[in-house]
Amino acid sequence: MISVEHNLLHTGLTSVQGPLVFVRNVQDVGLYDRVEVIAPDDSVRAGRVVSIAAQNAVVEIFQGTDGLSLSETRLRFLAEPVQLAVGPGMLGRVYDGVGQPMDGGPPIAAERKLRVDGSAINPVRRDVPREFIETGVSSVDAMNVLVRGQKLPIFSGSGLSHDRLASNIARFAKLRGAKQQDFAIVFAAIGVTFDTAEHFRREMDEFGALQRIALFLNLASDPSAERLLTPRVALTAAEYLAFEEGRHVLVILTDITNYCEALREVSSSHGEIPSRKGYPGYMYSDLATLYERAGRIRGREGSITQVPILTMPNDDITHPVADLSGYITEGQIVLDRDLDRRGVFPPVALLPSLSRLMSKGSGKGMTDEDHPALASQLYSSYAQAQHLKVLSSVVGEEGLSKSDRALLQFGERMENDFLNQGDVRRTLEDTFEIGWRLLAALPNEVLVRLSDQQIEQHLASFRHGG
Amino acid sequence: MNEAEVFWINGPVLKAQPVGSMQMKEAVFVGEQRLAGEVIRLDANSVTVQVFEDTTGLKPGSLVQASGLPLAAELGPGMLGCMFDGIQRPLTGIAQIAGDFFDTGVNVAPLDREHRWEFQPSLKPGAVVNEGQTLGLVPESADMSHRVLIPPGVNGKLEWITDAGDYAIEDTLARVRTREELVDVAMLRRWPIRKTRPCARRLSLQAPLLTGQRAIDTFFPIAKGGAASLPGGFGTGKTVLLQTVAKWSDADVIVYIGCGERGNEMADVLDEFPRLEDPRSGRMLMERTVLIANTSNMPVAAREASIYTGMTIAEYFRDQGFHVALFADSISRWAEALREISGRLEELPAEEGYPAYLPTRLAEFFERSGRVQTLNGTEASLTVVGTVSPPGGDFSEPVTAHTRRYVKSFLALDRARAQARFYPAIHPLQSYSGYLEQTERWWQQRGALQWGAFTKRMLELLEEQARLEKMVKIVGRDALPPSQRLVLVCADIVVQSLLRQSAFSEADRFCSAEKQTEMLKVIELFLQQADRAVQSGVDPDTLTGLPITRRIQRMGEDIGNDNLEALALLMHDIHDVFSELAPSFPEAGDDAA
Ligand SMILES: Nc1ncnc2c1ncn2[C@@H]1O[C@H](COP(=O)(O)OP(=O)(O)OP(=O)(O)O)[C@@H](O)[C@H]1O
Ligand SMILES: [Mg+2]
To answer: Which residues pair with B41 in a beta bridge?
Structure first.
């Protein structure tokens, strides 16, 4: 038996499969320990131990196994987990998918190293997220309130304008009451094109926010196994910025679908029994270890708000990537291809969209006392309008009652006047006004979600005065 | 102590070579950090252990130490108002040591060893005692006395009992001479979490668990001691409904398990419950609640254990004669934990990768619910309600399908309703309750003689509505005769007034049994009057626009539990409106004349 010590180079590869390397005769290595892999051409790759059976270990190589050979590849087992060096000056920088600066600047003045897997926040130490973020987007502010510390993904489809919406939110978001320098953005590109990442960077540059952003880039051309690491290093940086430097951090992760595909690829190399559509059975728990890193902690200044983006294959919301995400996140903003085609921007499909923290961040003392009733009525009437639209396409508009026709028209105005706002930022007050105005055109009998007083107070002026 | 040496590690599961013997389900400690674990398989030369903590950095060669005892919960005073993880480690205690984030190897005992509780003995030395008998009381809060019982299996003579006074949970309070030995009795007990606690006998179910939710109490009741499941796709309102029921139901003790769900939801419970009062007893909700939180990002093996830990605690309170309700969110996450562990062991999967023993485990779990006569003869109950999260919202998947076999109330949440923000999104035609008969008797005893007939009629109306709506899609509403259009109008009113109930409306989040009874009367009256009006020639669609209709549809939120006269007034006004609408027809009482 070859005796191996830490930090000594180790050979003994028995097999290479996908991103996995099987090694024999290892000793004293721990589960998930970091591994450096020295390829035959002397380049160094990062990996980690993913399972151990007696003296055999399986190592996952983040940068892929292309060019490795059984005899000439050397491994260095390090007795530590995969970590990210964090310290002041992390913002305004560009990093690669494993968290190494790649902008030609100096290395990060590391204060310390944090495990990229993070640790779960003890639920008793969590603070309930409830501070309203004004995003300037009506369909979010009135209908799907985003609060600090929430995880609110965008469920999109390929080719839809999720990037534009995300960058608008990043630019418009007004963190009420926070000093402007407290806020930071962490952007993780996971298997997206260079264009997407560059476009976001440019927008932020024009907006003058580049110094508040940390970009982590795993591009479409980068190795897929690295995608498992990219959101983790980005979130580790976010945790440092939020909970140690006290900033309010907005984390944009795009595209989670690419992440999940990488997970599936690695899982299948392990020969694991797949669950739905070939994705591993533990994908829910795995995604939770990313999404649950959003939040607020009692007694700490900062917060992590996540806006992950995922593209639903075939626009299918029951696809495991969207489905499992929806089961973990605190709502979702769903984009709609039909609205997009009609030029509505942002093309938010209201009915399937949801913010679960809406009741925390809206209402008296936060937005407006009647905000919840307004949203509830808009939802209810819009749902009715959608239903009538289908009905009228069959039986014709003549078959509809007067109030039904009013509802139909309301549905159209919801899309054209309320949802559609282009790249213009709307204040919450403007958004509310549009909402009340549209409701004023409906007869009271369909306004069951509003009290008499709310009808009197908010709708009367539109109905009489003009 | 027996030991084993680790040689195989895969995520939360490891295999080790034993020296000496270990038992199935035995609690073990792993490695230098003493990570908590449990034996889940025994083979000739290896034991398989599931580890309840993060195994990062664990190495082959580490030692597994046997504890000699099965994985157990600690039971005694001091659980109410606390939050534990899946293996009952107190989360506040852990935070005191590890800080805001979890760390491994932090071992804190579930119950406080130092705290001194007031003990009031109820027995005298020399008494003949039997298992389950109350030895004394420990007032845990203003209105809640914890009963210290003679442990199961202990029968004999009370040799000695301590005086009233303050004691720690490990202090010996009494000694019982049994046929075999002298048994010391303290407040602290241990019970294997996977083993059902004994009772004298199981009783048939009788009363409903009053949840304050009309859709449940009036339409699909859950009996005290019954089992219910609440399936629904993501965002359909399972958690909100479960938490609402946990808040307002008339149980004495609540065990709420966040099994593989969100951290913020548990923080929310911790934030809200201490500020809410039980509408019946006036005591703070937190004082009757035990919380178990093993969120989605916490170790999966502990998630698997969490529902048993919660169940054991619930049974412990049941044995004291309380009506206990256990809520688990979500059974699917538990099943997935089971699947993940099973997958790591490379067991042969049955449906969708779930192990073949999934149905058995589900059956065992739900069977621990029930109404019982406890060992000391009192009547008590344990109601179990679990949410189910079917992938893609498809109810035919294994966890939803199997759970359905073991529960009698099935409250199906519907995506379309949730999307229109119609809450609770319970689908009245897909849901059912097998407890209608028992609860009908209960309501009748309380004077609501027509309860069964009313609810049956409502459900028929909703079925008729579904059928007619299909027709409307083809022929248009105008083509329907007035009697059928009336059905549509009435059904809509039932839906809007009875089924719709916001969990966030202060007046409506909880609806008392009295208010429900009155509301039913309002609806019944409306249906009756509307029927007559239409028969006398009134167009049903004009009813929709009446201000009175709007008042009926909003009565839940506009009229509070303490203002039932307003419902009487509403009925009065309904009479007035209809006698004006259709003045010619005779009043109900005039028929005989
Ligand atoms: N009874 C209710 N009253 C008012 N609002 C509700 C009610 N039920 C649900 N909601 C709204 O719907 C949202 C989603 O509900 P909830 O979190 O309970 O869904 P869920 O079924 O538990 O989803 P998941 O399976 O993803 O956990 C809530 O955040 C709330 O805004
Ligand atoms: Mg839920």
So the answer is: B48
